[in-house]
Amino acid sequence: MATATTLKGQPLDRAALESMLRRRMFYTPSFEIYGGVSGLYDYGPPGCALQANIIDLWRKHFILEEDMLEVDCSVLTPHEVLKTSGHVDKFADWMCKDPKNGEILRADHFVEDVLETRLKGDKEARGLKVEEKEEDPKKKKKKSKGGEAVKLDDVVVKEYEEILAQIDNYNGEQLGELIKKYDMRNPTTGVQPSPPVAFNLMFQTSIGPSSNLPGYLRPETAQGQFLNFAKLLEFNTGQMPFASASIGKSYRNEISPRAGLLRVREFLMAEIEHFVDPEGHKKHHRFHEVEDIELAFLDRHTQLSGSTTVKKQTIGQAVKDGLVDNETLGYFLARIHLFLLKIGIDQTKIRFRQHMGNEMAHYACDCWDAELFTSAGWVECVGCADRSAYDLSVHAKKTGAPLVVRQRLDEPKIIEEWEVEIEKKKFGPFYKKDGKTIENAILATSQEERGKLAKELEENGKVVIDVPGVADGKVEVSKDLLAIKWIKRTENIREYTPNVIEPSFGIGRILYSLMEHNYWTRASEGGDEARGVLSFPPAVAPTKCLIVPLSSNKDFTPAIRTLSQKLRSAGVSSRIDDSSASIGKRYSRNDELGTPFGVTIDFQTLKDGTVTLRERDSTRQVRAEQDKIIDAIKALIDGSKTWQDIESELPKFESQEVEVVVR
Ligand SMILES: Nc1ncnc2c1ncn2[C@@H]1O[C@H](COP(=O)(O)OP(=O)(O)OP(=O)(O)O)[C@@H](O)[C@H]1O
């Protein structure tokens, strides 16, 4: 694995970056004065502004650009919804326990850590350069055994590498076998942990005072969008395809939150559910706009062969070759890529990794993750899954709600099929409260099942239907309550359940990666301590402009007020720093906050109304009248001009700031 570097190619010192981010209050552990709770963080002012700007660009890039229908659904979700969606039974990670100290370990992370430590030891023993994956700074404090320089057999090295390349593909039993086979021990105690068991990640609660409506905090925003499908389709005047989108918090009781903002228990998600007709190979009418975009792919077969080498290819070619299943999925992969670049993610640190069979969520039939390279290795930041018709089908089956599209056919169609007739007058009174559930289960049967049921009904005068949740799951229905007939009819309407392509963004992970990708340090020529800089693109930077008067002289106050008011009217966020620190210090404080522009008010301003404008990354300055400077800032933020354009248009100003160089 490569080592994480800063924007200028320096080795990334994660501890220094995190300390700067906390000092500048990008984020801070929640409930810190009570000792904190792992996996929970609060964002401070720059963190909030950065997040708001990312979300703003996300809304423009996806919702506005694609006419998506935004919804904001409840976080509290009744048990029944998540039982039907499969989350109650399957939304789990594998957990094992150290029998000696009771430590709880996430099984796949444990296997990964042990094997990586052993491979590192092997490299050291062979005298090879060890490329560090940065540990969570908090974890470093732990005293751990292992990691000694021990040479491994070549065959074993290959086996370890193959396991690591497909670490997400193992189920609990397989992880347990690996732990035993390779005698993996918890470095803290030297003891082998217990076999992995499934741990459901949802936070359970009860809704209402009587506690009789069990529920969960949602683990994703998707379900609310699916449940509103019929209304959204109507809102969209029945037109397909269309997409809904939602931005909101999700909650997962992660087994062992680590790596700061990258794995937390409460996080902001931005999710899109794009509903598409499954017939016609999920074509996308705007695919031609993105087909030449080159992406870095790590497909499932490459991972299974033990390799992590990416293949660079245009998305057009990848869809043509069948590497990416269809145009709609491909379109979104490319759009995700463009969004990440727009907010300032480093192009060389993005790859699209395909999920392996076992790794895929219970609802997905194909899935690609946009992974970003950070000091914690490659991290999934956006999941892009083809959820097929899974969710709409299961909710329709459970509730009887028509989560389908009805489309008028150009040519009428003759249909021959099995049709179910329920003797409603007798059926309801006979099954009482279970009547509706049993009826829905019968209506949800496939044509093949109906053929078999019709035969059974004729031969035995009754059938047995699978109805989960009623009696022992099997219900007998006699022929005086149900008929199944072979019929022929003319159809003018086609009814189908749409498939869903779901790009799902974890905003916190993207935000953290963005901070790493834009971080670098520079030192003054005088050899002062290296100063951090966050070179965010102006559009996402938390504050756009710093106003610095030359000194705290009261004469500057009116000019400061006028400038700050003008910037506010122009919609440019600004902060005033009129502290007594030197101008250089004040600028470098704001470089740490990623503020791209600085305006200095000096005695010249009082004479002729001109101010200087400083660009954060080059520290170069120009001087002009305030209105010209404000226009320049606006153009730099909206991307219509570059700093070079501004330098060619406005007179240069020689800075008194100490020259800085990249260390
Ligand atoms: N615990 C978490 N903390 C922060 N972000 C998360 C967390 N879990 C998921 N996300 C974000 O939500 C997105 C979509 O969730 P998804 O269910 O695909 O993640 P996941 O596959 O469970 O992630 P992982 O395998 O890392 O646990 C992820 O791409 C990620 O950005």
What is the SS-derived class? alpha+beta
Q: Helical residue percent?
A: 25-40%
Mean pLDDT: 91
Poorly predicted spans? 134-146, 658-663
Bound molecules: adenosine-5'-triphosphate
Tell me the span between the first and last alpha carbons: 24 Å
CATH architecture level-2 label of the largest domain? 2-Layer Sandwich
Biggest sheet statistics: 9 strands, mixed
CATH superfamily caption of the largest domain = Bira Bifunctional Protein, Domain 2
Total strands: the figure is 30
The CATH top-level class label of the largest domain: Alpha Beta
Domain tally: 4
Into which percentage range does the β-strand content fall?
25-35%
Number of helices: 24
Radius of gyration: 30 Å
How would you portray this structure in words?
This protein has 663 residues and is of the alpha+beta class. It folds into four domains: 53-86 and 202-390 and 501-507, BirA Bifunctional Protein, domain 2, CATH 3.30.930; 92-199, Herpes Virus-1; 414-493, 2-Layer Sandwich (Signal recognition particle alu RNA binding heterodimer, srp9/1), CATH 3.30.720; 525-662, 3-Layer(aba) Sandwich (Rossmann fold). Helices cover 35% and strands 27% of the residues. The strands form eight sheets. It has a nine-stranded mixed β-sheet. Strands 25-24-26-27-28-29 form a six-stranded mixed β-sheet, with helices on both faces. The longest helix is centred in the first third of the chain and has 20 residues, at 45-64. The chain is globular. The relative contact order is 0.10. The model is unreliable at 134-146 and 658-663 (pLDDT under 50). Adenosine-5'-triphosphate binds at residues 252, 254, 263-264, 267, 269, 380-383, 504, 506, 508-509. Residues 160-537 form the Aminoacyl-transfer RNA synthetases class-II family profile domain.
